[in-house]
Amino acid sequence: MFDWLIVGAGFAGSVLAERLASQRGDKVLVIDKRSHIAGNAYDRHDAAGILMHQYGPHIFHTNSQAVFDHLSAFTEWRPYEHRVLAHVDGQLLPIPINRTTINSLYGKSFTTEAETEAFLQTLAEPVDEIRTSEDVVVSRVGRELYERFFRGYTRKQWGVDPSELDKSVTARVPTRVNDDDRYFGDRYQFMPAAGYTRMFERMLDHPRITVMLSTNFADVRKHIPHRRLIFTGPVDEYYDFRYGRLPYRSLRFEHVTLDKPWHQPVGVVNYPQTEDYTRVTEYKHLTGQEHPKTSLTYERSAAEGEPYYPVPRPENALLYKRYEALADAERDVWFVGRLATYRYYNMDQVVGQALSTFRRIEEALPVPPAG
Ligand code: FAD
Ligand code: UDP
Q: Is the entire prediction scored with pTM above 0.90?
């Protein structure tokens, strides 16, 4: 009899497995339908020996010292500040849009934040209420930059126009009036020094944790005796799509290795105007690995397939609320993570959510004092 059956060996499931086993002495079984741990953060060495990310680029960044400290027990870190260039009008320009982007595109030579801000304000279009992903960008940088950097990329990535997506989607990408060209502004920006999978191995390496891979919950739920359940897969799937399917956006990854040391100047190049892929990742920039060859991933998005992104739109939030009500009414089942709580969360947010779930579990189920 397991105290806990945990469905999913990604951040949500693995962080909780470790806490339950090490802090409460609970006996935990973690299953995953995939043949590996680490969920979407899974990385591996490819045929050439280059460390790559099976499910697209994963860069760890957070402002939470608690989250950073927690993971630091399971990995050493490599400092890495992510930089992204967008292929726009035949040039490679910094995204987030910053002073360099503006100077290059408009033939300006602004050197101060004030000049750049004043110029952006001449481009910005007033929007009464910022509701959509189009509103966010147009109200800040105007329609021309929106069309060049955001509209095409978003249509490729989400299969809908930015005007049909919540503001939260494009609001992930700031606009800067200085020349800071980092993709993220967070206090902690690192890559796990030996990779994500190694970090997960260390997290799950506990005598009270058993891991079973290539195992689908639907096939085993009746056969594995367990007291309580943590589910980190899609919440609508858990309830057999009772209220209909929650839309998730899927991706296709094309991994290639080139017989030359470098392909592009930064870790990720975005393609908002041309190509059928959204972005190209070159892993050696992220990992610091030295190798005579280089490995890349081309990302194309798709409506069908493995669920990767919840789609932030008002009607989807309403449908999720109905599933959330079912989830909240459960006594012995906890729903955690990006798919189970239908939130467009980064890794650090999922770790934070898992740690706060652990605190709620401790309140609900205090461990009896020993003896
Ligand atoms: P997952 O990692 O999806 O884990 C859920 C696991 O549950 C999966 O392994 C799945 O196989 C398993 N599962 C589901 N259903 C079942 C079932 N029925 N039976 C058995 N197993 C099941 N975040 C960042 O912070 N920085 C980034 O740079 C970043 N880049 C990203 C790039 C891409 C392309 C994607 C898709 C996401 C990115 N993220 C990034 C987000 C990050 O992947 C997630 O926040 C994190 O992996 C979510 O962890 P999770 O445990 O909730 O879900
Ligand atoms: N986006 C865009 N152009 C870009 C980068 C981002 O239009 O060059 C929009 C797009 O809608 C994307 C969203 O901003 O889905 C969030 O970007 P982010 O890089 O955070 O996406 P993720 O890494 O989560 O796929």
A: yes
For ligand 2, atom 21, the nearest C-alpha belongs to: 172
| pLDDT digits 0-9 by tens, 166-204 | 999 999 999 999 999 999 999 999 999 999 999 999 999
Domains along the chain? 2-44+193-246+311-364 (3.40.50.720), 84-170 (no CATH)
The CA 304 to ligand 1 mean position distance, Å, reads 17
Question: How remote is the CA of residue 341 from the centroid of ligand 2, in Å?
Answer: 21
pLDDT value, residue 371 = 59
3-state secondary structure of 247: coil
For 121-140, how does the pLDDT look when each residue is reduced to its tens digit (9 = 90+)? Answer: 999 999 999 999 999 999 99
Identify which ligand lies nearest to the alpha carbon of 309: 1
Rounded to the nearest whole angstrom, what is the distance from the C-alpha of residue 194 to the centroid of ligand 1?
A: 19
Ligand 1 atom 2, closest CA: 39
**Which residues have CB under 8 Å from 268's CB, separation 6+?**
57, 82, 83, 84, 85, 183, 279, 280, 281, 282
